[in-house]
Structure formats: structure tokens, C-alpha cells
Task: inverse folding
């Protein structure tokens, strides 16, 4: 399993970023994919997840601002982040969940300046 995340960076409050995660080594189209984030000293938290049928779930803190999507033809999952806030600053991780194992990619830093 390989997960390669990209798209992080520095953005001003109110701005937007789109994260991408290219996946390989498993059957992507039938997978549960997610994005998590972690601030130093805090637990890693689920930001959004998308199931094979397209059902999505979001953390309350990002509902209405973030959108997770997938392109099964490209084996890629995306996280569109709009109306970013300083509290969204964290390292974001792509995740593949195959019960009971979580697979993680390298994180990508998102920094939102006020």
C-alpha cells in the first residue's frame, strides 16, 4: 500500500487549498478513504471520509467548508478546503482503512495565517 499526499501549503485565513492523495497497492474503487489531521501535542483526528459508494462523513468543525471526493479512474482522493481558518493548521494525512488496519501516507503541512 502506498499513499502519496500533496497540495499542502501556506494560505491566508479565508483562502482555499486542495489536497490530493494518489493511492496504489490495493483495490482503490472498493476502499474506504479518509483525511486526518494532527497538531503537535494533540491526537490525530478524522477530518473526512468517503466510502466506496460515495457516502461521505465530516468532522463537525469542517462541515460546509471541506469536501472530500474520489476519482476511481485515477486512484486518487481529494480534500477541497475552503474558508480556511487558523485552527485548520495541522499536518494532514491520507488514510486507507481496511478493517482493522489503518494505512497512512506521509503528511502534508497546511498552515493558515490570520
Result:
Amino acid at each position: 500500500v502506498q499513499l502519496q499526499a500533496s497540495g499542502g501549503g501556506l494560505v491566508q485565513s479565508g483562502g482555499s487549498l486542495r489536497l490530493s492523495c494518489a493511492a496504489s497497492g490495493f483495490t482503490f474503487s472498493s476502499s474506504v478513504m479518509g483525511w486526518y489531521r494532527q497538531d503537535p501535542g494533540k491526537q490525530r483526528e478524522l477530518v473526512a471520509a468517503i466510502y466506496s459508494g460515495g457516502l461521505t462523513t465530516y468532522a463537525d468543525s469542517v462541515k460546509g467548508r471541506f469536501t472530500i471526493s474520489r476519482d476511481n479512474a485515477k486512484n486518487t482522493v481529494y480534500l477541497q478546503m475552503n474558508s480556511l481558518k487558523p485552527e485548520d493548521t495541522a499536518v494532514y494525512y491520507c488514510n486507507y482503512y481496511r478493517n482493522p488496519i489503518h494505512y497512512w501516507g506521509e503528511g502534508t503541512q497546511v498552515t493558515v495565517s490570520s
About this structure: The two ends are 37 Å apart (CA to CA).
